[in-house]
Amino acid sequence: MPYSVQSSKTGDTYYLFTKEVTLRGGRQQKIFYFSRDDKNPKGTPVEDLPEGYEVMENARTGLPMLKRSN
Rounded to an integer, what distance in angstroms lies between the CA atom of residue 70 and that of residue 61? Predict the structure, then answer.
């Protein structure tokens, strides 16, 4: 089961996923993203929050985002 968080603004549940993307310069980078759909993921589900990150919520939209911890 992927890591999940519930939006305090909308009440929707979001699940954490990761995937490798290719940047314009050809460099590969791992990205993390939240999705409401945990049944048909386009990436790999993440079981635990990555070390050094915390979840924050966009105040306007209620969407969760990962932020590096201090």
Answer: 24
Distance CA 38, CA 18 (A): 12
Q: Which DSSP string do the residues of the chain spell out, in sequence order?
A: ---EEE-TTT--EEEEEEEEEE-TTS-EEEEEEEES--SS-SSEE-SSPPTTEEEEE-TTT--EEEEE--
Contact criterion met (CB below 8 Å) for 1 and 46: no
Neighbouring CB atoms inside 10 A of 17's CB total 20
- What residues in the chain have per-residue pLDDT under 70? none
pLDDT computed for residue 37 by the predictor: 80
Tokens of 70: 């201090």
Is the sign of the CA dihedral 37, 39, 44, 46 positive or negative? positive
